[in-house]
Amino acid sequence: MKIGVLALQGAFIEHIHHLKKLQCETVEIRKVEDLNDLDGIIIPGGESTTMGKLLKETGIIEPLRDKIIHGLPVWGTCAGMIILAKENENHPIEGLKVMDIKVRRNAYGSQIDSFEEMVQIKEISPNPLHLVFIRAPYICAHDSKVEILYKRDGKAVVAKQENILATSFHPELTDSLEFHRYFLAMCCGKTN
């Protein structure tokens, strides 16, 4: 299996390390040609405004949007969730606009408001999961096609829509491989 990780900005190397631990071939996505022959793609956390501008400047935005619309599995973490969203409530950005969600950027506050917690998300793993929230967004509205997998204090922070997975936190900054395993199962068509 070959998974691309958008490597324009943000925490891409951490995702690559997790994928390699799962014996997965990885490609750093920096130009349009890097999108060829992928089984899935991860859009990492980082700075969503910068990431959106770089997606447009490199010419990746339209080909990637087309691949996702035609079924390429994609997972966005934190800023990646913002990039995937069709609408951003409090800060317009240049994004892919492929997931039927509206997100609130920096919803949990600034860098000093970052936090961690252990939770159970049965769709992802039977084991408790370590979640790291850093200037995290949350989903404030969604279409009925979107399945909410986890809410924190009533706010959706994990969602899935067909071939699209979005998390408002950073699984790549933990030792757990559970979210990456779940995404690889999506890429194999082994999740609902």
Automatic annotation (TrEMBL):
Reaction(s) catalysed (UniProt annotation): aldehydo-D-ribose 5-phosphate + D-glyceraldehyde 3-phosphate + L-glutamine = pyridoxal 5'-phosphate + L-glutamate + phosphate + 3 H2O + H(+); L-glutamine + H2O = L-glutamate + NH4(+)
A cellular component term, taken from the record's GO annotations: cytosol
EC number: 4.3.3.6, 3.5.1.2
Residues holding L-glutamine: 46-48, 105, 134-135
Pathway: Cofactor biosynthesis; pyridoxal 5'-phosphate biosynthesis
Active-site positions on this chain: 78, 170, 172
Coiled-coil stretches: none
UniProt keyword list: Glutamine amidotransferase, Hydrolase, Lyase, Pyridoxal phosphate
GO molecular function: glutaminase activity; pyridoxal 5'-phosphate synthase (glutamine hydrolysing) activity
GO biological process: L-glutamine catabolic process; pyridoxal phosphate biosynthetic process; pyridoxine metabolic process
Pfam families referenced in this protein's UniProt entry, alphabetically: SNO (PF01174)
Cited function: Catalyzes the hydrolysis of glutamine to glutamate and ammonia as part of the biosynthesis of pyridoxal 5'-phosphate. The resulting ammonia molecule is channeled to the active site of PdxS.
Subunit: In the presence of PdxS, forms a dodecamer of heterodimers. Only shows activity in the heterodimer.
UniProt family annotation: Belongs to the glutaminase PdxT/SNO family.
Protein name as annotated: Pyridoxal 5'-phosphate synthase subunit PdxT
